[in-house]
Amino acid sequence: MALILFNKPYLVLCQFSPQDGRTTLADYLDIPDVYPAGRLDADSEGLMLLTDDGRLQHDISDPTHKQPKTYLVQVEGIPDAVALTKLRAGVDLGDFISKPAKVVEVAEPAWLWSRDPPIRERAITPTRWLALTITEGKNRQVRRMTAAVGLPTLRLVRIAIGPYSLESHPLLPGESRAVDAAELTASRR
């Protein structure tokens, strides 16, 4: 059984099959028979887990297993108590109400890489960073949640899935590493 940690760069598609000149996982990983356990939008960056084990893939990606996923979110504007309370309580997104999120305002981590191309910056509009943890993962959910509370997402970086994080397992964009058997066994307990 293989479990691969991969730091997905910005604009890379979460698939191995080619698509009209777009960059995909196949441009970075040459490991047979592994598949993503969950997805990450092309315009999002960060941690992905890939495995050759269907049960493990299901355990990681199925919301009923409640694997927490933590994102660093650079938002446009300054979060106030009302916006943070709404995120913590669950946000009505029209087609569903998000489950409550853990959210705190944070400084940009020193270990975070710069994005290429960089985000757009406006001299008159401040930005802030949030660490936001959810246990579900619907299509563009974090972006929709922050927009619904008046804080459009400018940059979204997934930094942790369950026990695995880019902070404790540093990888630059495009880098990967296999989880050894002992670590995998320990994390599944």
What does this structure look like?
This protein is of the alpha+beta class and 189 residues long. It has one domain (3-183): 2-Layer Sandwich (Alpha-Beta Plaits), CATH 3.30.70.1560. Helices cover 17% and strands 26% of the residues. Strands 1, 2, 3, 4, 5, 6, 7, 8 and 9 form a nine-stranded mixed beta sheet that branches. Strand 7 and strand 8 form a beta hairpin. The chain is globular. The two termini are 16 Å apart. The mean pLDDT is 90.
Walk me through the topology:
Elements: E1 3-8, E2 35-36, E3 45-51, H1 54-61, E4 69-76, H2 81-89, E5 102-106, E6 127-134, H3 141-148, E7 153-161, E8 164-165, E9 176-178, H4 181-188
Parallel strand pairs: 3-7
Antiparallel strand pairs: 1-3, 1-9, 2-3, 4-6, 4-7, 5-6, 7-8
